[in-house]
Write a structure and sequence with these properties.
Structural class: alpha+beta
Radius of gyration: 19 Å
CATH topology of the largest domain: D-amino Acid Aminotransferase, Chain A, domain 2
Mean pLDDT: 96
Low-confidence stretches: none
Number of domains: 2
Bound molecules: 3-[O-phosphonopyridoxyl]--amino-benzoic acid
Number of helices: 8
């Protein structure tokens, strides 16, 4: 049996899971998504991802027509049908089909797709040696234009441009600044720095997505007694940090050891980063909703 995809309420063979050429997600980036990981048969932080998806949809005024519980069971059912015990689940929603910007011309309800994939973003060694990062010239849009808390399809054109900047110089990731020039986040990850023994991450008001890995790492820091605060982070802070790392569902927790040609800390993952990686990994093995 081949892979199945949940499409608008039905599990469909992957090759037959087609979305209209007039889907608003395709035409205008008019939708939202979630990327979720499954570890050893457990879907990590499933409820948190679904809550964020529902909030994105509400902010965009897209009616999904499914409750939180129904989306949770559709995701678990799709993973189960694909015997997906380790990897990535992608949930993509759009406003529906219709040519023209005007949502009153839509000819269908919201499109909802759930698919399962394998995903490994960085080679295993990089979690031990750390990542080289640059600062992108592409900025995150201010919240008054498109709120970075919405995980909307459309905003990612910017993040893709920033990622291309990193690719052009052979860097693993790019930091993105907000319109004030403070660090918001990376293209698909949140940023943490360790400054004078305190773990610091920019607040979402600085243009960061409320990352689920970010929230997990903050819990890990509390658990192991690492002081933490949310505060504005500048490039000066990053260049002078004792340690830095990025967090995201795809990247998990990965040390950042070089930024814009400068080495951070000793140019190797710091001890706080290593402890947090261990604490995070422990959680991925004991938490989650059974597939
Ligand atoms: N910032 C941005 C802009 C993101 O897109 C994160 C931070 C980290 O959030 P989480 O909740 O994952 O800790 C993200 C996450 C994909 C993909 O399809 C993108 C993300 C996650 C998983 C897959 O490329 N972005």
């Amino acid at each position: 049996m081949g892979q199945l995809v949940y499409l608008n309420g039905r599990l469909t063979a992957r090759d037959e899971a087609n979305v209209s050429i007039y889907d608003h997600g395709f035409l205008y980036g008019d939708g939202a998504f979630e990327g979720i990981r499954v570890y050893g048969g457990n879907i990590f932080r499933l409820r948190e991802h679904v809550v964020r998806l529902l909030r994105s949809a509400r902010a965009l005024d897209i009616a999904l027509g499914l409750t939180e519980a129904e989306i949770i069971s559709a995701i678990a059912e799709t993973a189960r049908a694909n015997h997906h015990t380790t990897g990535y689940i992608r949930v993509t929603v759009s406003r529906g089909d219709g040519l023209g910007l005007d949502p009153s011309h839509l000819t269908s309800k919201a499109t909802i797709v759930i698919s399962t994939e394998q995903l490994s973003l960085y080679p295993k060694e990089m979690y031990e040696t750390g990542l080289t990062v640059i600062t992108a010239s592409t900025r995150v849009p201010p919240a008054c234009c498109i709120d970075p808390q919405i995980k909307s399809l459309g905003r990612y054109v910017n993040n893709i441009m920033a990622k291309m900047e990193a690719n052009r110089v052979g860097a693993g990731e790019a930091l993105m600044l907000n319109m004030e020039g403070n660090v918001a986040e990376a293209t698909g990850d949140n940023l943490f720095v360790v400054l004078g023994g305190v773990l610091v991450t920019p607040p979402t008001s600085q243009g960061a997505l409320p990352g689920i890995t970010r929230a997990t790492v903050i819990e890990c820091a509390e658990e192991i007694g690492i002081p933490f605060r949310e505060s504005t982070v500048t490039l000066y802070d990053c260049y002078n940090a004792d340690e830095a790392f990025l967090t995201g569902t795809a990247a998990e927790v990965i040390p950042m050891v070089r930024l814009d040609g400068r080495s951070i800390g000793g140019g190797a993952p710091g001890s706080t980063t290593v402890r947090l990686i261990e604490a995070f990994r422990r959680r991925t093995t004991v938490e989650g909703v059974r597939v």
